[in-house]
Every structure is written in structure tokens, then in C-alpha cells.
Amino acid sequence: MSRPDPYFPGHGDRSYSAEHYELELACRIDGNRLDGRATIAATALVDLRRLELDLGDFAVTRVAVDGRKPRRFRHRDGKLVVELAGVVPAGTGFTVVVGYRGTPRPMPGVLGDAGWEELTDGVIVAAQPYGAPSWFPCNDRPDDKAGYRFTVTAPTGYHVVANGTLVESRRSASGVTWVYAADEPMAPYLATVSIGRYAVQQLPAAVPMQVVVPGGRQVTLPESFRRQPEMLTAFTELFGPYPFGSYTVVVTEDDLEIPLESQTVSVFGLNYLDDDWGSERLVAHELAHQWFGNAVTVPGWDDIWLHEGFACYAEWLWSERSGRESADEHARAHHARLSGLPQDLVLGDPGAADMFDDRVYKRGALLLHALRLTVGDDALWRLLAQWVERYRFGTAGTPEFVALAEEIAGRPLRELFTAWLEETALPDLPAAG
After folding, report:
1. CA atoms of 166 and 150, how far apart (whole Å)
2. Residue 376's domain spans which residues?
3. Nearest CA among 377, 371, 375, 364 for reference residue 411
4. Cα(130)–Cα(204) distance, rounded to whole angstroms?
5. Do 192 and 262 form a contact (C-beta atoms < 8 A)?
6. Contact 248, 212 (CB under 8 A)
7. pLDDT tens for the chain, residues 1 to 433
8. How far is CA 247 from its chain centroid?
């Protein structure tokens, strides 16, 4: 059984593992109403007499387990607790169906609200790290990855984007129903939906790639967004094949404080449509997360540097590949800046309140650059590609990364990793070769 998450132990149930989510959702934009039915195929990890699902402030209208009513269920404080009519033996598959409805709201937490977010005329979901229950019942653990199918009905005139591949869209008296299939395993926090009045612009890339933009205005994509096919090519050379079947970027009509990435989908506000390096690096950052964070996901949030440090380093690699500053120049500039900041963060365990502190991003990227200077370019590229290949669609943490790094380097690297991951003082960067 997987280890409890140290940062959000109230989320998730470790007595079972979800295998597949079938979500059927009817969304009313005006008034922000959601009617949902979730069918969850799962496997018991112990002899199961009760189970818990994470679910926000909805009215639960129905619960069934393998087609039978449970002995009882209760729903409060973000938990749907189901006491089973019988025992599901360990290793046995079962199916849970939950009907629910209400007004979806973000989930509160130490990092602020996360999850379902109303826009001026539409919806996005920004669920990292604990917002998935704001719109569907789930086993909300980063290490419990499953396949998904989304059937979303929205009013006519609205475009729906969800994870995976668009299977069909069909009109009815109640609106337009959009069906997406995400067959590659995905953590609940990466599940997303965007609904708005959008138009689609295709990009000529090695995999189907599109940018979904506000449909009520003429939008010309800046070079920072049009270069995504080049970014895809560069990252494929460095990290291995793109892990999924497609990639979609949504640009909302609203400004957003930060962009956000989900599996096969990233969302930007209209305020990022410019050619500044500040926007272009974030376009590269969110694309890189498809390898680091989505294809390979941490087993617990204390290992968040393996997502954000890698995506930040990808920004510097894209800068290097696209003729701007080298990764070494970025690294030394950020090292000088970080050296003047408080030295009170442990990269390998920053704590829930600081898991998205900018120092996690930059120190994680600096660790990778220090590793590159220590083992050489070829070894680092082999390491990153094999990391994704070996753990694709699964989870892996710091111990696995250190072990793989030492395997590929052919020598101990414990001293380097200990200095960067376990100590608060910022280590020196090795000299450039």
C-alpha cells in the first residue's frame, strides 16, 4: 500500500485504488450549476468494509456499489464515507456510482482555494494540489492514477475542453455534449475541464496541437505561442517521445494570475498573449510538465521539486535551444539572486505552505544544472529520457531519481543530492566545463 501523503493526509483513501473514472456532467454556466454522475472502477487493496471519496459541497443523490445500495453513507466536510453492504476482498475489483448536484466551489486549503473556478463567461478547473473534489468524487491522491472518460453537456455556443482526445460532440435540446477519453493513467488533480465561447487554432506539430482562444474577438497568436511545435521538437530530443496523443492550450477571455497545466491541457489568461520572455518561458514550462508531473507523477507532495524544478529547467533549456541565454547563464543569475534570499527552505521537503515557493522551482532547476555540470550533458539527457521511459504513466519520487542518476553516472552522487535536497544553505554551483 502506498505511503500517506505528508502534506494533505486528509485527502485520499489508501484502502483501495481507482482504475477508471466515467464522469457524466451537465453544466449550467448561468447560475453555476452542476449535475453529475461518477462511475468509478476500483480495486480493493485490503478487505474492504468501508471506503471514502473526496467530494466538495454537493448534494449526494445516489450511491451504489456493484449495483447495490450500501449499508449507509454520509457526506460532510469534503468526505463521502460509504459503509458497504458486504466485504470486498483484497485484490477484488468493484464499481462505485455516485450521483450528485449543486453549485461547485473551489476547495479551501493552506494554499488558498483550488479547483472549479468561474470566469466572466465560462469555467476552468485549476485543481492542483487538492481541488479535484470541487467537481467530482475521487480518491484524491497524486499516486492514485486512473483512466478517465468525460461526457460534458454545456449550453449551445460554448466549447468544452477536457483531458485526452475528443471522441465526439453531439447536439441535443439541452445543449451540446462533448465526450473526451483520457486513457493514459492520470492523477485526480490533473483532471480538468474548460468551458467558454472559444475558437480553435491548429498548430503544425508532430502530434495534434491546438490553441483554443476567445471566439468573440480576432486573436493573433504571438510568436511565444506559435513556437510550441518547436518546443515540442526540442523537448522530444531531450526528454524522449511526447507521452500523450495530443496537446491543447486554452487562452481564457479573462486575465489569470498564473497559467496552469493539466494532463494534455494547459490554460493561460489573455494577459499572457505577448512575446515577452516572461510569457514564452511559461509556455515552455507548462509543456514540459507533460513529461515531468503528468507522465511521471510524484507519489507525495514533498517531492514537488521533481515537477517544478524540472519544468523550470526546461525553460532554461528552451532558452539555450532557441538562441537566447544559455542554461548556465540562467543558472548563475538565479543562483546569485537566491543567495540573497532567506536560507530556510529544504528543497526535498519544503512543507505544504511553501511547496510552490519560487525557491522550489529555481533550486530544483539549479540542482539539475549542478548535476549536468557534474556528470556531463550526455549523462543528463540519458537520465531525463530514461526517467520518463522507466516510470511513464506511473509515480516515482526522489529515491528513485537518485538511484537512476547514480546508475547512469556509474558513481555515487549522494553527496551532491544531500547538499541540494536536505540542507537549507544554498550549495555552490560547480564550475562550467
Report:
1. 9
2. 296-421
3. 375
4. 35
5. yes
6. yes
7. 455 678 999 999 999 999 999 999 999 999 999 999 999 999 999 999 999 999 999 999 999 999 999 999 999 999 999 999 999 999 999 999 999 999 999 999 999 999 999 999 999 999 999 999 999 999 999 999 999 999 999 999 999 999 999 999 999 888 999 999 999 999 999 999 999 999 999 999 999 999 999 997 788 999 999 999 999 999 999 999 999 999 999 999 999 999 999 999 999 999 999 999 999 999 999 999 999 999 999 999 999 999 999 999 999 999 999 999 999 999 999 999 999 999 999 999 999 999 999 999 999 999 999 999 999 999 999 999 999 999 999 999 999 999 999 999 999 999 999 999 999 999 999 998 7
8. 13
In a domain, 307, yes or no: yes
CA neighbours within 13 Å on the CB side: how many for 165?
A: 9
> Within a domain: residue 427?
no
The pTM assigned to this predicted structure is 0.97
Backbone φ, ψ for residue 21 (5° rounding): -115, 130
Nearest CA among 306, 220, 214 for reference residue 268: 214
b/e per residue 296-305 (b: at least 16 CB within 10 A)? bbbbbbbbbb
Pair 2, 128 in one domain: yes
CB 292 within 8 A of CB 315: no
> Any idea what the CATH number is for the domain that residue 309 is in?
1.10.390.10
Number of domains in the chain: 3
- Is the distance from CB of 394 to CB of 144 less than 8 angstroms? no
Same domain as 171, residue 67: yes
CA distance 174 to 153: 8
